[in-house]
Amino acid sequence: VVLGDHFHRPGLPFVFSESAAASRQAIEHLLSLGHTRIAFAACEREDGDHRDRFEAYCSTLEARGLLSPDLIGRIPPHRLDGEKLIRNLMGMPNRPTAVFIADPLVAVGAINEAHKMGVKIPEDLSIVGFDDTDMRTLIYPKMTAVCQDSRMLGQVAFERLLDRLAGREDSTPYHRGQAAWLEINETTAPPPEIAYHILPNRTRLAAASRAN
Predict the structure, then answer these.
(1) How far is CA 27 from CA 19, 117, 153, 170, in A?
(2) CA gap 207, 158 in Å, rounded
(3) Rounded distance between C-alpha atoms, residue 189 and residue 151, angstroms
(4) Which three-class secondary structure state does DSSP give residue 212?
(5) Cβ atoms < 10 Å from Cβ of 123
(6) What is the pTM of this model?
(7) String of b and e for 58-87 (b: at least 16 CB within 10 Å)?
(8) For residue 212, what pLDDT is reported?
(9) Closest of 84, 132, 88, 79 to residue 107, by C-alpha
(10) 166, burial (CB in 10 Å: exposed 0-12, middle 13-18, buried 19+)
(11) pLDDT for the residue 48
């Protein structure tokens, strides 16, 4: 029984939370606030879940003519890589004013590093993260996130494994469980009037006016 992923493999059961719809809602939320430069960051090793989130990001922005390949990043799913991500984003020419981070630890690392750099969240940069526990409530500001219930998924996966051991085969290969949902909290806001470049030493350099 494969947990948290899905791909074509006859006879192999999968348990995962469908996250494409909530990911589209996340991007639409940022667009509704006025953002037009929205970055994306996800694991360097693509699986079914990350592919769903990435395709939702691409299709939503592409439909509005706002998809920018230079704003797409694939990085290891660790807290320290979230720190590198925020430093890179804040130093980019025509930098983004929002980012969708599809890995929980990367989002935490990015927000923590933002505090060290003097990047105001969400005034300077809006962040939508991903959360499969209650991590969004343990950081400041409380993170806007696409959420899934990992405990429920683990329970369903174990139950399906017990069924297979007992010879109770399920003809349905995919069990999506509860769909992921968007929870809007405190890390998203309209884009800044001036999108400052902010260096790791907290230096703020004026960029173009209203660079959304």
Answers:
(1) 13, 25, 25, 35
(2) 52
(3) 30
(4) coil
(5) 11
(6) 0.83
(7) eebbeeeebbeeebebebebebebbbbbbb
(8) 46
(9) 79
(10) exposed
(11) 60
The contacts of residue 205 (CB under 8 Å, 6+ apart) are 196, 197, 198, 199
Cis peptide before 141 (omega within 30 of 0): yes
Query: CB of 135 within 8 A of CB of 183?
Result: no
Query: What's the CA gap between 6 and 141, in Å, rounded?
Result: 33
**Tokens in use for 153?**
């998924």
* CB distance 85 to 109 below 8 Å: yes
Whose CA is closest to 102, among 176, 155, 45?
45
Per-residue pLDDT of the chain (212 residues; tens, 9 = 90+): 777 676 677 777 777 778 899 999 999 999 999 999 999 998 777 776 778 889 999 999 999 999 999 999 988 888 889 999 999 999 998 999 999 999 889 999 999 999 999 999 999 999 999 987 888 888 999 999 999 877 877 778 788 788 778 877 665 655 656 688 999 999 999 999 999 999 999 999 986 544 44
CA 167 to each of CA 15, 42, 137, 159, 170: distance values in angstroms, whole numbers, following the listed order:
18, 38, 41, 12, 9
What is the dihedral sign for C-alpha 90, 77, 191, 56? positive
